């Protein structure tokens, strides 16, 4: 299965009827500037669907994209936003926690995006464990594999696998379109 259509529907800040319309949701979560929007753009083969920025914390609402008129990609604010004011950080963190752990919205899949060149951070592992506690169906995408030196690649992925545990890990590069087909296969099943 492939993506035939993708369009931005709306951004929401909390409860919204659109999140209750019965269309399955695939949520994308990760640290700020890990490439969540870039991963979404690479999956739909467009550069302009999800807005990207080099500024951490660009995504400040829950953005919904309708895929093939049958599935939502949900682009969530990142965590670990180093350059945002404290009040905004707290507000974004609360929004993400509400969406996953307080609201009754169910996600078909949760795509946790980590930086492959850095490996999972403490924040990444915290969100992973929270998602596990709530029995979410998690796929880990190790983005930015193109930034890892070839000589360090195998060792880096051993470390990532050790920290992530039994979850599926997809080596990915939104920039070089590595891992796109594998991730689509997991999402569009």
Describe the 3D structure.
This protein has 189 residues and is of the alpha/beta class. It has helices at residues 36-44, 86-102, 122-133, 150-164, 180-187; strands at 6-12, 25-30, 62-67, 71-75, 109-115, 138-143, 168-171. The protein contains 5 helices and 7 strands. The chain has a 7-stranded mixed beta sheet with strand order 1-3-4-2-5-6-7, sandwiched between helices. A hairpin with a 3-residue loop joins β3 and β4 (71-75). It is globular, with a radius of gyration of 15 Å. Residues 53-57 have low confidence and may be disordered.
Question: What would the keywords be for this entry?
Answer:
189 residues; alpha/beta; 7-stranded mixed β-sheet; 5 helices; 7 strands; 32% helix; globular
Weakly predicted, low-confidence segments: 53-57
What integer is the average pLDDT? 89
Ends distance: 8 Å
% residues in beta strands: 15-25%
> How is the largest sheet built, in terms of strand order?
1-3-4-2-5-6-7
Q: What count of helical segments does DSSP give?
A: 5
Instruction: Determine Rg (CA atoms, Å).
Output: 15 Å
Which overall shape is indicated by the principal axes computed on the Cα atoms?
globular
Describe the largest sheet: 7 strands, mixed
Total number of beta strands: 7
- The helix-and-strand class reads alpha/beta
Order of helices and strands: EEHEEHEHEHEH
Oligomer: single chain
Helix content bin: 25-40%
């Amino acid at each position: 299965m492939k993506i035939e259509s993708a369009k931005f529907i709306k951004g929401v800040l909390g409860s919204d009827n659109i999140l209750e319309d019965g269309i399955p949701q695939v949520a994308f979560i990760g640290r700020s500037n890990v490439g969540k929007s870039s991963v979404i753009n690479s999956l739909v083969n467009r550069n302009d669907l999800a807005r990207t920025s080099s500024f951490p914390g660009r995504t400040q609402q829950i953005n919904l994209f309708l895929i093939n008129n049958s599935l939502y990609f949900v682009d969530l604010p990142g965590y670990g936003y180093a350059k945002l004011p404290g009040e905004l950080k707290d507000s974004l963190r609360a929004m993400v926690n509400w969406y996953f752990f307080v609201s009754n919205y169910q996600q078909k899949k949760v795509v946790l995006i980590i930086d492959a060149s850095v490996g999972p951070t403490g924040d990444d592992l915290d969100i992973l464990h929270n998602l596990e506690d709530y029995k979410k169906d998690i796929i880990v995408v190790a983005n930015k594999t193109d930034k890892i030196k070839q000589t360090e690649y195998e060792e880096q992925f051993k470390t990532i696998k050790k920290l992530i545990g039994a979850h599926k890990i997809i080596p990915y590069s939104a920039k070089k379109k590595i891992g796109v087909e594998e991730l689509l296969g997991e999402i569009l099943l």
